Structure to design on (204 residues):
C-alpha cells in the first residue's frame, strides 16, 4: 500500500453511542421495508457500516459545514452528524424513499442541524462547504467534479475507497490536481481513506 497514515484515535462519548444505537435500531426497522443496506444483521451493520463511517470523524476539519453526496442510509453523513450534532450537515439523496428515511432519522435522533436534499447532486446549489464526503458512490474523478462545485476555499474531500484506490487516483490525476493524504482503514485492511485538498481541474 502506498504511504498510508494510521488513523488518529477517536472514541464516541456516551451521548454519541446512544444516538448511534437509536440510528441502528431505526435502520433495521426501515430496512425491512426498503433496501437501505444489504446486510441487516445488527453486528454487521455496526461493524461494516457504522464503525466504517465513524473512522472519518478525526479527519474532519474542526468546524464548517459538511455535505454528504449520495447519502443513502446516512452513511457516512448521518453517522458523522450523530458524532458532531453541532455541525451543519447536508445529506444529498435523490431517492425519495431513502430521503424520507434520512429525514425521519435526523428527527428521531434530534439532529436539528441536518438538512436533507432530495435531489440529484448535479442540481445542487450549495456553495461554501468545508468538507465533502461520499461512500461507495462513484469513481474518484466523478466525485471530484461534484466536490469542486461546492467546496469553499481551503475545503477538503474525504472519500473511503477500496483496493482500487490507487487506480482511481491515477485515473483522476489526468483531469484533476489535488493534495493527497492516505489513511489506512481500521475496518477493512484493503481499504484506504483519501483526504483531498487544493482540488482544482487540470489546466486551471
Amino acid at each position: 500500500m502506498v504511504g498510508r497514515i494510521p488513523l488518529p484515535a477517536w472514541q464516541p462519548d456516551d451521548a454519541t453511542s446512544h444516538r448511534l444505537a437509536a440510528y441502528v435500531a431505526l435502520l433495521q426497522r426501515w430496512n425491512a421495508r426498503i433496501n437501505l443496506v444489504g446486510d441487516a444483521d445488527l453486528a454487521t451493520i455496526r461493524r461494516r457500516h457504522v464503525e466504517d463511517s465513524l473512522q472519518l470523524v478525526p479527519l474532519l476539519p474542526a468546524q464548517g459545514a459538511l455535505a454528504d453526496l449520495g447519502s443513502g442510509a446516512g452513511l457516512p453523513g448521518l453517522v458523522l452528524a450523530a458524532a458532531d450534532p453541532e455541525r451543519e450537515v447536508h445529506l444529498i439523496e435523490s431517492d425519495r424513499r431513502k430521503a424520507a428515511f434520512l429525514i425521519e432519522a435526523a428527527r428521531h435522533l434530534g439532529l436539528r442541524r441536518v438538512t436533507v436534499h432530495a435531489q440529484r447532486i448535479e442540481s445542487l446549489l450549495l456553495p461554501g462547504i468545508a468538507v465533502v464526503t461520499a461512500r461507495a458512490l462513484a469513481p474518484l474523478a466523478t466525485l471530484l467534479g461534484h466536490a469542486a462545485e461546492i467546496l469553499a476555499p481551503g475545503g477538503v474531500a474525504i472519500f473511503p475507497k477500496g483496493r482500487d484506490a490507487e487506480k482511481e487516483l491515477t485515473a483522476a490525476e489526468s483531469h484533476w490536481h489535488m493534495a493527497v493524504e492516505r489513511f489506512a482503514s481500521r475496518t477493512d485492511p484493503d481499504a484506504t481513506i483519501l483526504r483531498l485538498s487544493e482540488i482544482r481541474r487540470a489546466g486551471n
Q: What stands out?
A: Residues 5-201 form a domain with the Rossmann fold fold (CATH 3.40.50.150).
